[in-house]
Design a protein that fits this description.
single chain; 499 residues; alpha+beta; 3 domains; 5-stranded antiparallel β-sheet; 16 helices; 12 strands; Spore_Ger; transmembrane helix; transmembrane
């Protein structure tokens, strides 16, 4: 009985071992397995790697010559033998698939069964650093993030070359195994924000992460909100500036954008170019952007409400112009507005999806032709056409692309409520929007700060931008360990040479 029992146990052990051996065999065409013999010791060893993700030049120049002619007795001597910094020796078979498909070479030596060496030889295929396309600025640096995580970290490190800048890395995605770097300033940041980000990323259950937008949606405080909860940027200078304020930055491998949090609604109307301009000019531009966004949202609903319910409130001279412009228009104001708004959105979407040169032509020519034709055909009034065109132009003033999409979407609920109840409907829709914004949070911080809860000291760099000498303290809502950025008293002193 003992003989059969031992035989059964041995058979079970072999069954458990067999799949592990099988996993090393190249099943995919780009998986290469080659065996070699060391010329000095006669030791046999094998290399297994994925040819499409490793740099074969590294293998031929830095790895193979030393392995074929070098003097090593055990697999443990590989670290001293090879001129490669990233070499890991392990007995964990579970790491094989994870490592070789991430650009590592698997080395096995016949004398050390059960031990594996992983040698880094990743192939880097990236584009060169170029100027920002979405957050373009006339003044300031002309560098933007690219799809390489290491290169993006280099761009940030170049601006913050201090040991206080901490980089932590996680791997997310069951299939993609995407690297995500979490950056923060150790002596400034509120560690609760860092722990919140880490906890949300570690608890993610998703198979494939291709871009930072996936991460933004998956770890957002409110996934049902049309408002972006994290600030999305392609500018390394903006990321570095946010880190110095005490925020957390997430950089995703394969994405040319970084995520910044916690953030507030007013930050989406701040262009980083504002800091390169005089504070008076920068304040003017910020107020102009906020006014433009409000105008873009309410001008068409006000037109619909006034002509449907409140024409008595319109001055006679203006009313005469509106009546003359609508002569012969068979559609009610709401349908007239919807036709034009949807037409503008179609032109914008077509221009964005088509190749650059064709898209520009479609946007300009299409807008002129369709607008002129619709007025001449009597489908819309020329006054509403002007309002819709100005509203579309005003929505382009937002420096962050994602908040621009939100503004485009919000106009339609306001239009519907304006048709239902007029000005009362617009006020009711505004109350719903305000309630939603008050309840929103970014990493648990108020989304409407410093308006709600009111923190007047934080207004110095939101709607307006005061001079740098007035910004000695970091924002209160971030609860940073270091409240002061510099001494405001010393900043005001200007000592000339002759003094």
């Amino acid at each position: 009985m003992d003989f059969f029992k031992k035989r059964k146990e041995k058979k079970q052990q072999l069954q458990n071992i067999e799949p592990k051996k099988e996993s090393l065999k190249p099943k995919s065409k780009d998986v290469t397995e080659a065996k070699y013999i060391n010329s000095r010791t006669g030791m046999q060893f094998s290399l297994t790697f994925v040819s499409t993700v490793v740099d074969e030049e590294i293998i031929q120049k830095d790895i193979l010559p030393d392995l074929l002619e070098g003097d090593f007795a055990t697999i443990g001597d590989i670290k001293k033998l090879l001129p490669v910094a990233d070499v890991e020796i392990t007995t964990d078979m579970a790491k094989v698939d994870q490592k070789i498909y991430n650009g590592y070479i698997l080395l096995q030596v016949e004398t050390d069964e059960g031990k594996y060496a992983f040698i880094a030889a990743q192939k880097e295929i990236t584009r060169s650093v170029s100027a920002p396309e979405i957050e373009f600025s006339v003044i300031g640096p002309k560098e933007a993030f690219i799809e390489s995580l290491d290169q993006n970290l280099n761009l940030i490190r170049k601006r913050l070359p201090v040991k206080q800048l901490i980089v932590e890395e996680l791997t997310v995605g069951k299939l993609s195994k995407t690297r995500i770097a979490i950056l923060y300033m150790e002596d400034i940041v509120e560690m609760e924000n860092v722990e919140t980000v880490k906890q949300r990323l570690e608890s993610l259950e998703f198979d494939e992460i291709s871009d930072s937008s996936f991460v933004e949606q998956l770890i957002s405080d409110n996934q049902a909100s049309p408002f972006p909860i994290f600030l999305d940027t392609e500018r390394p200078d903006r990321a570095a500036g946010s880190l110095s304020q005490g925020k957390v930055v997430m950089v995703v491998d394969g994405s040319p954008h970084a995520l910044i949090g916690p953030t507030t609604l007013l930050e989406f109307f701040v262009s980083f170019e504002d800091y390169y301009l005089n504070w008076i000019i920068a304040t003017f531009f910020r107020i102009l952007r906020i006014f433009s966004v409000v105008f873009s949202i309410i001008v068409t609903p006000l037109y619909v409400a006034a002509l449907t319910y409140h024409y008595q409130m319109v001055p006679r001279a203006v009313m005469a112009t509106l009546i003359s412009s609508r002569q012969g228009v068979p559609l009610p104001p709401i349908l007239e507005a919807l036709v034009l708004e949807i037409t503008i959105e179609l032109l914008r979407e077509a221009g964005a999806r088509l190749p650059t040169k064709i898209g520009q032509t479609i946007g300009i020519v299409g807008g002129i032709v369709i607008g002129t034709a619709s007025v001449e055909a009597g489908l819309t009034s020329n006054v509403l056409l002007i309002f819709v065109a100005l509203a579309a132009l005003a929505s382009f003033t937002t420096p962050i692309y994602k908040i621009g999409n939100t503004i485009r979407f919000i106009r339609f609920p306001f239009l519907i409520f304006a048709q239902l109840w007029g000005l009362l409907g617009i006020v009711f829709c505004f109350c719903i929007l305000l309630t939603h914004l008050i309840r929103l949070t970014s990493l648990g911080r108020p989304y409407l700060e410093p308006i709600y809860p009111p923190r007047w000291s934080d207004l110095k760099d939101t709607i307006v931008r005061l001079g740098f000498s007035k910004q000695a303290k970091r924002p209160k809502y971030l609860r940073t360990d270091k409240k002061k950025r510099f001494s405001s008293k010393n900043a005001k002193q200007k000592i000339d040479i002759d003094e």
